[in-house]
């Protein structure tokens, strides 16, 4: 496989590129964060003053979605501006399955990343933290547009320990800009510290920082002093989880402080989101007020805390209620970097720059579709249909049933048939996945649809 060249965006028109005023870009990505576990989304249990303050100064995307309900495909959509289903990245990256070529077990090398695009515009790109888009050389972040990498290529990491004996969650930290072996203290703190170091080192040039935190993904491991802060929480596992979110918030605060202390806050675009909904039966998160969890296509699996802070023009929009998807980030960033005629790039996302800057109030109608292991879903206007293999399709009207408690498919049979046909046509025209997870995940994901998430 050969990645499409991005040298000067050959064949595309680039105009209005800033000279010394190119904005910096930061994506702060949480891992398995529950929608209801931040102050600004309504939590009364956890203290997240830094994230809440950042959200208050940003445009909150109340209908903010990710492209998948699990880590790796969600990250593939986020970093490419494409629906990852279109390039075969439907599933989480795990062990290669029989019958599949391990050379394809990663982010399709024929698809460009945001770092690829920005590199050709003179940006320096850094990834700090989790990659989870392939571990072979061709998929490595340093071969996918990033200049600096501190972190791990697999799907997670122990918070306190490193073990060189090929322990999956205790692998050594990779770093291409420090000679000595990298140690960790508490990996959320270490990730935050490395992000600050990257900002301090590259404040004089346009940069893209992908701050890809592990928190609050399992294993449930928190600093004792933070666990003690939540001793009033009855369930111990929930207490540890909230302490992990607390640490995440502290380190988001470090990043914001570094931006402000270096005097570049007015020229930096910042996005905060989670890669998917919280796995409530695994890390004791909550996705209130949504149904479902990580691995499902209910709102609790794909609708996440999501906001964007851009350089202020007059007054910013306090929140944007139209559905925004994580694959909109790439074209939006490129718009802020001065790239025109984005329609030439085959993105599935759209730039929301003009809506953020109040230059356009007419957001286009979009039909959004997802596919993951045993399920698929479609959202059109406020109608949402979910298709599973062992039951009739479910239909919800999100305008008056945001918690997806009332299946109205039989009462609206024509709408059900119409959406099911659109979803089916999209599904059969999409390519085969390039890799799969183990077959056991099909049953695990199906069982998640039968849980009662409001007990």
Descriptive account of the structure:
With 455 residues, the protein is of the alpha/beta class. 26% of the residues lie in helices and 15% in strands. The protein is built from 12 helices and 15 strands. The strands form 3 sheets. The chain has a 9-stranded mixed β-sheet. The longest helix has 26 residues, at 236-261. Mean pLDDT is 93; it is low at 1-20.
What are the salient characteristics of this protein?
alpha/beta, nine-stranded mixed sheet, 15 strands, globular, disordered N terminus
What is the subunit arrangement here?
Answer: single chain
Rg result: 21 Å
Return the string of H and E elements.
Answer: EHEEHHEEEHEHHEHHEEEHHEEEEHH
- How much helix is in the residues? 25-40%
The best one-word shape is: globular
Look at the helices and sheets and give the structural class: alpha/beta
Largest sheet: 9 strands, mixed
Give the tally of β-strands. 15
Question: Biggest sheet, strands in spatial order?
Answer: 6-5-4-7-1-8-9-2-10
Strand content: 5-15%
Mean pLDDT: 93
| Count of DSSP-assigned helices | 12
Which stretches of 5+ consecutive residues score pLDDT under 50?
1-20
Terminal CA distance: 49 Å
Short description:
The chain is α/β, with parallel strands linked by helices and 455 residues long. The chain contains 12 helices and 15 strands. Helix 1 packs across helix 6 and helix 4 runs parallel beside helix 6.
Furnish the topology, listing elements before pairings.
Elements: E1 24-30, H1 49-56, E2 59-61, E3 64-65, H2 71-80, H3 114-119, E4 124-130, E5 148-152, E6 174-175, H4 187-202, E7 207-212, H5 224-229, H6 236-261, E8 268-274, H7 280-283, H8 299-302, E9 306-309, E10 319-320, E11 324-325, H9 329-336, H10 353-356, E12 367-372, E13 375-380, E14 383-387, E15 394-397, H11 413-429, H12 440-448
Parallel strand pairs: 1-7, 1-8, 2-10, 3-11, 4-5, 4-7
Antiparallel strand pairs: 2-9, 5-6, 8-9, 12-13, 13-14, 14-15
Helix pairs in contact: 1-6, 4-6
């Amino acid at each position: 496989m050969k990645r499409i060249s991005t040298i000067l965006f050959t064949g595309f028109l680039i105009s209005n590129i800033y000279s010394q005023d190119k904005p910096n870009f930061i994506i702060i990505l949480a891992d398995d964060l529950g929608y209801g576990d931040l102050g600004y989304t309504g939590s009364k249990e956890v203290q997240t003053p830094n994230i809440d303050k950042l959200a208050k100064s940003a445009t909150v995307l109340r209908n903010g979605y990710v492209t998948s309900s699990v880590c790796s495909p969600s990250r593939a959509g986020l970093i490419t501006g494409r629906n990852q289903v279109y390039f075969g990245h439907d599933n989480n990256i795990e062990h290669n399955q029989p019958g599949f070529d391990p050379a394809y077990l990663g982010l399709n090398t024929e698809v460009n990343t945001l770092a690829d695009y920005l590199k050709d515009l003179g940006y320096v790109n850094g990834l700090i933290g989790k990659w989870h888009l392939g571990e072979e050389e061709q998929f490595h972040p340093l071969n996918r547009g990033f200049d600096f990498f501190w972190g791990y290529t697999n799907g997670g990491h122990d918070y306190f320990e490193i073990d060189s004996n090929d322990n999956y969650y205790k692998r050594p930290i990779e770093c291409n800009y420090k000679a000595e072996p990298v140690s960790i203290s508490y990996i959320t703190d270490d990730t935050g510290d490395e992000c600050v170091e990257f900002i301090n080192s590259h404040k004089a040039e346009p940069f893209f920082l992908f701050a890809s935190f592990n928190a609050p993904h399992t294993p449930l491991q928190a600093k004792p002093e933070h666990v003690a802060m939540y001793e009033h929480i009855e369930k111990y596992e929930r207490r540890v989880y909230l302490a992990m979110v607390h640490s995440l918030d502290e380190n988001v605060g470090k990043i914001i402080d570094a931006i402000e202390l270096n005097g570049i806050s007015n020229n930096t675009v910042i996005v905060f989101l989670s890669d998917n909904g919280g796995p409530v039966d695994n890390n004791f998160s909550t996705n209130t007020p949504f149904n479902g969890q990580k691995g499902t296509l209910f709102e609790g699996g794909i609708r996440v805390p999501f906001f964007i802070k851009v350089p202020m023009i007059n007054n910013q929009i306090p929140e944007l209620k139209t559905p925004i998807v994580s694959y909109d980030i790439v074209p939006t960033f490129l718009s802020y970097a001065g790239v025109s005629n984005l329609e030439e790039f085959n993105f599935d996302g759209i730039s929301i720059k003009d809506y953020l800057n109040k230059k356009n109030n007419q957001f286009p109608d979009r039909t959004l579709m997802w596919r993951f292991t045993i399920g698929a879903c479609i959202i059109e206007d406020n109608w949402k249909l979910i298709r599973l293999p062992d039951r009739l399709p479910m239909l919800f009207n999100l305008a008056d049933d945001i918690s997806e408690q009332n299946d109205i498919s039989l009462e609206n049979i024509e709408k059900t048939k119409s959406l099911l046909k659109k979803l089916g046509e999209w599904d059969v025209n999409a390519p085969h996945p390039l890799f799969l997870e183990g077959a056991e995940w099909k049953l695990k994901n199906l069982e998640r649809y039968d849980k009662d998430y409001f007990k």
